[in-house]
Design goal:
The chain is α/β, with parallel strands linked by helices. Helices cover about 30% and strands about 25% of the residues. It folds into 4 domains: about 180 residues, FAD/NAD(P)-binding domain; about 110 residues, FAD/NAD(P)-binding domain; about 110 residues, 3-Layer(bba) Sandwich (FAD/NAD(P)-binding domain), CATH 3.50.50.60; about 90 residues, 3-Layer(aba) Sandwich (Oxidized Rhodanese, domain 1), CATH 3.40.250.
């Protein structure tokens, strides 16, 4: 009878326990969980606060009694693992009945992470919360019901912070989001972070970027920012990142990787072959570039738990790594991402190119038409797909799932352009936005229709190294245009080529980019040699900080 002990009973740990039982009916399996709940849906906590999840019990996926009945797994709640004796293969724990040692044949660490609490004066005030566990959720829910706060400040613009901000908005609370970086959702590129920020502003939230909270003034129910300004805050939620829970592993002498997560091999074994690990506490291989990183997401954690349990029982499953595919509900919009952002790809050393397409989620003549924005990131030498981001009210996550599969399958930009995706007017265009992005990337790589990003265009124009030709319609141009732009609508361009200067390189702008591509092709065939169009057009240019429209 093999003894398997799993430390941590949420995503990775609960999955590991269930998998271990399916593999071995005779194994003695024990989950050690320091909290009062096992196997709960921590990703659903903000949606209980918002009221979207009606029943609290729906978030409790399994109970100790349920684990015993279905899997014959013993669950020790409110029990903390305090030491590992690797030589004797014993785990020392402290629980309601005191300290004891549990022998093991294989140990699986699935302790996850904990919210990082920055050094802010006043964090201990009773109206300051974090959101990580069911007791955290209960405390916030009860505080809102009893104290009825009118104002809330959310510290941090990542997943949990923004999901909580939306929950507070739904509860009728005025919300201010304070983010240290220059855009919300830091893993995203700045232009997509700007779209997310606009979605929250549209819903009534105040978004403060490049700011940090220095003090929580509990008596006055205010927070003080680094610039000295004060913001009303009858409720404060701190969500400034997640740190891996590696203290137990460190004390046992297990190797910690350069990312700060527990180091594991392809079998998810630690530096001790009898100890495996899974979930938010470990570092994994980032599939796109092979770098060791932490990717604290529920999907990878569940798959890792399955593999760790298999190998703890003598199997030989391999974990290739993760792409970091994620999706996030931004009030009425969806943001999804996979692989590397444009910024991350360049930081990783790739000769990265990126194209941005703003197009409908399906044909415009069908009900439910909404704009969908997609950025495709690729290697300019090989055409290898490196990542993608998508934002819109409908269809973002579906496109990102396709790109995730394309990256795992080694599909190139050219092959993505030929991918046969489902089409009918209520669902799509005959050429999906992914096909269009792939066409634009292939055109840029071949030199057929060179592009540049909005940030690159703005830098060129501000430095006086190029002239901007705006080919928008008269109506589009009249609503706002770039200062100093030459305006010739696309449909008049062939007849007005004499008005286009040849002394400086040309940057062509249009509403969303496609008409800019058409104009660039006309200009190239008319003998203009230095022509590029802005990928994403004026829609993307307006997302750049420092850009301001001029109106007639």
């Amino acid at each position: 009878m093999r003894k398997i002990i799993i430390v941590g009973g949420v995503a990775a740990g609960a999955t590991a326990a269930a998998r271990a039982r399916r593999l071995d009916e005779t194994a003695q399996i024990t989950i050690v969980e320091r909290g009062p709940y096992v196997s709960f849906a921590n990703c659903g906590l903000p949606y209980r606060i918002s009221g979207d999840v009606k029943k609290r019990s729906a978030l409790i996926l399994q109970t100790p009694e349920g684990f015993e009945a279905r899997y014959r797994v013993k669950v020790l709640l409110d029990t903390e693992a305090i030491a590992i004796d690797r030589a004797e293969k014993e785990l020392k724990v402290r629980g309601p009945e005191g300290e004891t040692s549990l022998p093991y044949d294989a140990l699986i660490l699935a302790q996850g992470g904990s919210p990082f609490m920055p050094p802010i004066e006043g964090l201990g005030a009773p109206h300051v919360f974090r959101l990580w566990t069911i007791p955290d959720m209960d405390a916030i829910d009860a505080y809102i019901a009893e104290q009825k706060p009118k104002t809330a400040v959310v510290v941090g613009g990542g997943f949990i912070g923004l999901e909580s901000a939306e929950a507070f908005l739904k509860r009728g609370i005025a919300v201010t989001i304070v983010e240290l970086t220059d855009h919300l959702m830091p893993p995203a590129d700045r232009d997509f972070g700007a779209m997310i920020g606009a979605a929250f502003a549209e819903a009534g939230a105040r978004v403060l970027l490049g700011r940090s909270v220095k003090t929580i003034d509990a008596p006055r129910k205010e927070i003080v920012l680094d610039d000295g300004s004060r913001i009303p805050a009858e409720l404060v939620l701190v969500s400034a990142g997640v740190r891996p829970n590696t203290d137990l592993a460190k004390s046992a002498g297990l190797i910690i990787g350069p990312s700060g997560g527990l180091a594991v091999d392809e079998r998810l074994a630690t530096s001790d072959p009898a100890i495996f690990a899974a979930g938010d506490m470990i570092e994994v291989t980032r599939i796109v570039d092979g770098k060791k990183v932490r990717i604290p997401l529920a999907g990878p954690a569940n798959r890792q738990g399955r593999i760790a349990a298999t190998n703890a029982l003598g199997g030989n499953m391999r974990y290739r790594g993760a792409l970091g595919t994620s999706v996030f509900k931004a009030v009425d919009y969806t943001f999804a991402q996979t692989g590397l952002s444009e910024k991350a790809a360049r930081e990783a050393g790739f000769a990265a190119g990126a194209v941005t397409i703003h197009k409908g989620n399906h044909v415009s003549y069908m009900p439910g038409y909404e704009e969908l924005s997609l950025k495709l990131v690729y290697d300019t030498g090989s055409g290898r797909i490196l990542g993608a981001e998508a934002f819109g009210k409908s269809g973002a996550e579906r496109r990102i799932d396709v790109v995730a599969a394309a990256i795992m399958g080694g599909i190139s930009v050219d092959e993505l352009g030929e991918l046969d995706l489902a089409y009918a007017p209520p669902y799509n265009y005959a050429n999906d936005i992914l096909n269009m992005a792939a066409f634009a990337a292939a055109n840029a790589m071949s030199g057929y229709s060179p592009t540049l990003s909005a940030v690159e265009a703005l830098a060129e124009l501000n430095a006086g190294r190029a002239r901007l030709l705006d080919v928008s319609t008269y109506g589009e141009y009249g609503k706002g245009h770039a200062p100093g732009a030459i305006h010739i609508p696309l449909d008049e361009l062939r007849d007005r080529l004499a008005e286009v200067p040849r002394t400086l390189p040309l940057i062509v702008a249009s509403k969303t980019g496609f008409e800019g591509h058409l104009a660039a092709r006309q200009l190239v065939q008319a003998g203009f040699e230095r022509v590029r169009y802005i990928s994403g057009g004026m829609r993307s240019l307006r997302l750049e900080p420092g850009y301001h429209d001029e109106t007639d």
